[in-house]
Design goal:
- The complex is a heterotetramer, with two copies of chain A and two copies of chain B.
- Chain A is an alpha+beta fold.
- Chain A has one domain: Beta-grasp domain (Ubiquitin-like (UB roll), Roll), CATH 3.10.20.30.
- Chain A is built from three helices and five strands, in the order βαβααβββ.
- Chain A is globular and about 35 Å long.
- Chain A starts with a strand and ends in a 6-residue tail after the last strand.
- By secondary structure, chain B is an alpha+beta fold.
- Chain B has one domain: Molybdopterin biosynthesis MoaE subunit (Aldehyde Oxidoreductase, domain 3, Alpha-Beta Complex).
- Chain B has three helices and eight strands, in the order βαβββαβββαβ.
- In chain B, the strands form two sheets. A four-stranded mixed sheet of chain B has the order 1-5-7-2. In chain B, strands 3, 4, 6 and 8 form a four-stranded antiparallel sheet that branches.
- In chain B, a hairpin with a 2-residue loop joins β3 and β4.
- The longest helix of chain B has 18 residues.
- Chain B is elongated and about 55 Å long.
- Chain B starts with a strand and ends with a strand.
- The chains are: A alpha+beta, B alpha+beta.
- The interface between B and C is medium-sized, with 30 and 30 residues.
- β2 of chain B pairs antiparallel with β2 of chain C, so a sheet runs across the interface.
């Protein structure tokens, strides 16, 4: 399946794109997907410890198993207010 | 509990928002918080802050926070407005109102929502430097 | 620190008061508190609360509290309005605004001033019962 | 000297007057003045433990020594807000 990954805030600058598409098997974990993302966008991997991951509009950890239709977002710490 | 969440590029008009409050019979305390863009960020003068957000998720996360606040405290109503785009120094970026029977829970809930917002609501800022 | 204290029989218009705020360069956080008369007092329904005060002492005690708050926290401005006379259920009896660089001190100072006011500012209330 | 004592809130109801005048020597303590007040207004004495005393616009304790021109206020616990 194809998973669309959106990069928010300065992650888009570091990735050189606002989003990317990744082909992964159904049931791939978020952690495995991040491995593919970091191979394509190595500048993002330096920030992996402060990276937040959402699937749809909910936060998810690395063990979440991706399903068809899932949209993934990667972003730095939030700064609202 | 009534709740309203608005994420908007429109300027925040605190007095107009306050004037639009519906009064409820259990209302004893109203707390407003206004977050205003300051003239410096990490020591450097700035002209504005440019806010961006992942809007559907920001709305969903605000809803979860307000639902959780309603479980923790006996609140009448919570309204939150966060502005996006370029917000100049001196202008508000965040407006919040918490209404409750007594003041302790209004203050506690208002602070808790702001603290949690800064942890989970996907909004980011970028300083706009002063152009000489 | 700028300070304004008003003890008045006029109705409190929170939005108009908020709209009259002067903005300052160090302003990052604005907290408003509005205390509203509730429909019951010690379990009994009431129509209003009739507030009386020893006005010169109330003003002097408020001034001391605001001076002390200015020593404790880095505040830009504090404004306090307390209404006297008959204040009907649903109407505000107290309005307060605290402006500071960051939110923690605005919340802390606002709560502290209210808590101290309830200890030292000579204002008293008398419930006005509902006339059947 | 004559000291005017003002009774605030329901203390005026209990005293049956909004104020009273008391003749005391210069340097009389607030505590001694209260003794005179309670002799004239015995219903107030039952509340002596919750009575607040001000001279002018400042709170004072029982040991304060009264001077000519001092205006004394007696009132119950305050209830603003």
């Amino acid at each position: 399946m194809t998973v669309e990954v959106t990069f928010w805030s300065y992650f888009a600058d570091l990735a050189g794109a606002a989003s990317g598409k990744f082909d992964v098997p159904v049931g791939t974990s978020v952690e495995e997907l991040l491995g593919s993302v970091y191979r394509s966008h190595p500048r993002l991997s330096a920030l992996r410890n402060s990276t937040l991951v959402a699937v749809g509009v909910e936060y998810q950890g690395g063990s979440y198993l991706l399903q068809p239709g899932d949209a993934v977002s990667l972003f730095p710490p939030v700064q609202g207010g | 509990m009534k709740q309203e969440i608005l994420i908007t590029t429109e300027a925040i008009d605190g007095p107009a928002l306050a004037a639009a409050r519906a009064s409820g019979p259990g209302m004893g305390a109203v707390v407003h918080f206004l977050g205003v863009v300051r003239g410096s960020e990490e020591g450097a003068s700035i002209a504005a802050i440019d806010y961006t957000a992942f809007v559907p998720m920001a709305e969903a996360q605000f809803r979860k926070l307000l639902d959780e606040a309603a479980r923790r405290w006996p609140l009448e109503s919570v309204r939150v407005v966060h502005r996006l785009g370029v917000v100049r120094v001196g202008e508000p970026s965040l407006w919040m109102e918490v209404v409750s029977p007594h003041r302790a829970e209004a203050f506690d809930a208002c602070r808790w929502i702001i603290d949690e917002m800064k942890r989970v609501v996907p909004i980011w800022k970028r300083a706009v430097p002063v152009v000489p």
